[in-house]
């Protein structure tokens, strides 16, 4: 999903006509899409790190 948002943002910026007065809408849409993708990736990385840490903790040999 993130790659789709980033690709869409890139496409919007490439196809926007800078001479048109509404170009700011395309830039805004691209920025919102990119920020959404970044937020999703950060959340995903945090979840994966927590899961990896839990797995490491559970598989570590206990000292008795």
TrEMBL record:
UniProtKB keywords: Signal
Organism of this sequence: Sparus aurata (Gilthead sea bream)
Signal peptide: 1-18
Highest taxon, organism lineage: Eukaryota
Entry annotated with the keyword Membrane: no
A single GO cellular-component term on record: nucleus
Gene Ontology annotations of biological process type: regulation of DNA-templated transcription; response to muscle activity
Classification via InterPro entries: Perm1
Protein name: Uncharacterized protein
